[in-house]
Amino acid sequence: MITVSEAVEIRAPAEAVFAYVDDIRNLGWHMTGRSSMAMLGSRLRLEILSDQPTGLGATYRYSGTMMGFSIDFSESVTKYLPPREKVWRTIGRSRLLIIASYEMRVAVEPLSASSSRLTISIVYDLPRSGFWRIVGLFLARPYSRWCLREMLKGAKLALEAKAGVTA
């Protein structure tokens, strides 16, 4: 298993940071909101499958295509300790390209009453064999870093703008 982690300081209280990242629509925007070079011009559709959108057992599904290949995977929240930590992982049979399965973790650490550190990590497996394993060896780590940085950048921009913080 391979681990990638990124962190950023956000000028917002820990409770506000956790509330923002607890909403999967805020974290998944880089895959669903706009086409990008890293997504090769594709966008995925996000569905919230559980009755509740957050909390232990909350379940989500992403589906779509990338380069003509079908992408379809579900994930479920396995650890939920608001306002500090949330962990979720892929469940069932995942149809991904450069990784086989993953577990993600967000951790919010208060630095002061108005500032927090947000850390997002992914632990993933490469595809077991074949062409996609070779591609994954080269692209999974940089793609994972891009995803984490997009999530962090989005959270920082949204939360600091809401708080009226300017650069």
Classify the beta-strand content into a percent band: 35-45%
Query: Helix count, per DSSP?
Result: 4
CATH topology: Alpha-D-Glucose-1,6-Bisphosphate, Chain A, domain 4
Estimated structural class: alpha+beta
Strand line-up across the major sheet: 1-7-6-5-4-3-2
- How far do the termini sit from each other? 37 Å
- The total number of structural domains is 1
Q: Which oligomerization state do the chains in this entry correspond to? A: single chain
How many beta-strand segments? 7
CATH homologous superfamily descriptor = START domain
CATH architecture: 2-Layer Sandwich
Order of helices and strands: EHHHEEEEEEH
Helix content: 25-40%
Unreliable spans are 36-40
Structure description:
With 167 residues, this protein is α+β, with helices and mostly antiparallel strands. The protein has a single domain (2-162), classed as Alpha-D-Glucose-1,6-Bisphosphate, Chain A, domain 4 (2-Layer Sandwich), CATH 3.30.530.20. The chain is 29% helix and 41% strand. It contains 4 helices and 7 strands; from the N terminus they run E-H-H-H-E-E-E-E-E-E-H. The chain has helices spanning 14-22, 24-27, 29-32, 131-162; strands at residues 2-10, 45-48, 59-66, 69-81, 85-95, 101-112, 115-125. The protein has a 7-stranded antiparallel β-sheet with strand order 1-7-6-5-4-3-2. The radius of gyration is 16 Å and the shape is globular. The relative contact order is 0.24. Mean pLDDT is 90; it is low at 36-40.
